Amino acid sequence: MEDRRVREHPILGIQEENFVEITVDGQTLRAKEGETIAAALLANGIQIHRYTAKKHEPRGIFCGIGQCTDCVMTVDGNPNVRTCITPVRAGMTIETQQGYGKRGTGR
Amino acid sequence: MKREVVIIGGGPAGLAAAIEAESRGCDVLLVDENRRAGGQLFKQLHKFFGSKAHSAGVRGIDIGRQLLQKTEELNVEVWLNSPCIGIFSDKRAAILHNGVTEVVEAEKLLICTGGAENPLRFPGWTLPGVMGAGAAQTMVNVGRVLPGKRILMVGSGNVGVIVAYQLMQAGADVVGIVEGMPKIGAYGVHAAKIRRAGIPFYLGYTIKEAKGTDKVEKAVIAQFQGGKIVEGTELETDVDVICVAVGLRPLSELAQMAGVRHGFVPELGGFMPLHDENMESSVPGIYVAGDTAGVEEASTAMDEGRLAAAAAAQALGHFPDEEAEKRKQEIRDRLESLRQGPFGERRMAAKERIVGKGV
Ligand SMILES: Cc1cc2nc3c(=O)[nH]c(=O)nc-3n(C[C@H](O)[C@H](O)[C@H](O)COP(=O)(O)OP(=O)(O)OC[C@H]3O[C@@H](n4cnc5c(N)ncnc54)[C@H](O)[C@@H]3O)c2cc1C
Ligand code: FES
């Protein structure tokens, strides 16, 4: 898979990495503890966060600062979690959200 | 729960306000919905302009670190991961903290929630891969993940040009910067870096369409004249990200809920809460500062935060009138010297107009 992580940076330097595992749509992926879910997904090449309720169109990161809700997903059974400002924790379960999502059942 | 000063939003405005209020002896609570305070500063890798008093020559990320350190030294009470979800009458703020909604009654409430980027609508604008330039900047500079490999930037203002450079710095290929106006909007130094890097500017062009099935695959740009696309001038290029940098607007939903009087001020980003010379709004005891009070820059945001906090500390009786007036004047003079140049002068005039009208 293509690598999108910026490990060395001319100004920010080299970054320490502490990886944990998360589950995304049933698949186990590596993410950095404390990074936003959106950054972890992007690093794993995932750009689609949800499908809209009426037209089932894909949506991804749009504002990146918690203001537009385009990036919401179902996290640990809770729908509509803004993934661009929610940090990754080990063992998190993340699902691509369909429409407005449903609590508990996922999706 | 009660606090003398409650500050919503811990960007440069909120942090500077917290430091000012706490050092004057106020009992302060600062809340931010992010996992780290600092707001947009931790994505600003470029050096700031202005004089030494304005931290010129220092990078935004370093200013952020200094502010955080100072709030720690002063033992400011900070709640992170804690969005304010509403403001009720009598300056009561509802804050989601550790999964519980706490209602905090504030004697003085400072709203420093910042701004958000304006969207631009064109066919394909909702495809994953089309995002705000600030979103891309957040991903690469804070998240340390490249949003894409081949990126088109729409908008040549400071944000567009700075973010294009930072994306390139992190290893992305920026295919060009599209600008509808006949000239580049950003400061010369920033634009020069882009030119030196060989990234082309398409002046008098706009984005016509983003193509792709479930994410962006191609961008179509075309010449733009008199507000219209010139048919037959289309250029198509492969990209995986299209960044949109067409300005910011104040985030003022909380101020709206609190019943603060608003006005439309195009120079400062549009619909915004109005304020007086102390940054106090039409609701006594509610202050606004930073991008919420009109979109400018981090340096002006910090000074507006300090001004609001000094005024609040004075009103609470913690800051003797004579000293407070002196301090506020010093901050206002600094703000005036920051608001220079073609952008700054327009903002200065707009601010004077707002303050002159009263709230
Ligand atoms: C994505 C983005 C990128 C930018 N990049 C640049 C740049 O490169 N160069 C430049 O000069 N300017 C840039 N700007 C402009 C920038 O807004 C100002 O420079 C400066 O950061 C404004 O400071 P502030 O304190 O008013 O707001 P911000 O820095 O935006 O801080 C606002 C804070 O409030 C918090 N917040 C918002 N709503 C709530 C709520 N309901 N509850 C709790 N907390 C809340 C946010 O989490 C944030 O920490 C950018 C703006 C954005 C939006
Ligand atoms: S991308 Fe806008 S809320 Fe997450």
UniProtKB/TrEMBL annotation, chain A:
Superkingdom of origin: Bacteria
Annotated ranges, domain 2Fe-2S ferredoxin-type: 18-100
Pfam families the UniProt entry points to: Fer2_4 (PF13510)
PROSITE patterns the record matches: 2FE2S_FER_2 (PS51085)
Keywords: Oxidoreductase
Name under which the protein is recorded: (2Fe-2S)-binding protein
Organism the protein comes from: Sellimonas caecigallum
Classification lineage: Bacteria, Bacillati, Bacillota, Clostridia, Lachnospirales
TrEMBL record, chain B:
Keywords: Oxidoreductase
Ranges of residues in domain FAD/NAD(P)-binding: 4-305
Keyword Oxidoreductase: yes
Matching Pfam families: Pyr_redox_2
InterPro entries: FAD/NAD-bd_sf, FAD/NAD-binding_dom, Metab_Enz_Cyan_OpOx_G3PDH
Protein name stated in the entry: FAD-dependent oxidoreductase
Species lineage: Bacteria, Bacillati, Bacillota, Clostridia, Lachnospirales
